[in-house]
Design a protein that fits this description.
Shape: globular
CATH architecture: 3-Layer(aba) Sandwich
Number of domains: 1
Oligomer: single chain
Helix content: 25-40%
Structural class: alpha+beta
Order of helices and strands: HHEEEEEHEE
CATH topology: Trna Endonuclease, Chain: A, domain 1
Radius of gyration: 14 Å
CATH class: Alpha Beta
């Protein structure tokens, strides 16, 4: 399927950084800890990103007062949503899909550092 190949090199780089953070930190910290570690790893690997950047949303062409702050956007086109829960739910996937639609981006990763024995990465394409 062609959708699976979107941003292949960028995805590989992002996933490598995620695996390294999990290898180093393991399971059991709060989301904010993983966010900070992942930002450090992205910098070390020279992966371009912005964290907690405020994005505007619109409804029927009208800009909303409410803002959206994705955890991380890499390469100016891939949304990374971080979780530190025992198991992700369908609501978490829906959240990422909504963020993708709201920003007109095509690829997002739902990353759960709370899963054991390995990090969970769900790739979502719209």
């Amino acid at each position: 399927m062609i959708d699976e190949l979107i941003y292949k090199e960028e995805s590989y780089a992002i996933q490598g950084a995620i695996f390294e953070v999990y290898r180093e930190m393991g399971c059991g910290f709060l989301e904010a800890v993983y966010q900070e570690c992942l930002e450090k790893e992205f910098r070390a690997r020279k992966i371009p990103f912005v964290a907690q950047s405020e994005l505007h949303l619109s409804y029927k062409g009208e800009v909303l007062q409410q803002k959206y702050r994705p955890d991380i956007i890499c390469f100016n086109k891939i949304i990374i949503e971080l979780k530190a829960v025992k198991q992700t739910a369908q609501e978490h996937e829906a959240q990422v899909i909504n963020y993708l639609k709201a920003t007109n981006m095509k690829l997002g990763f739902l990353v759960n550092f709370g899963s054991y024995p390995k990090v969970s990465i769900i790739r979502l394409v719209v």
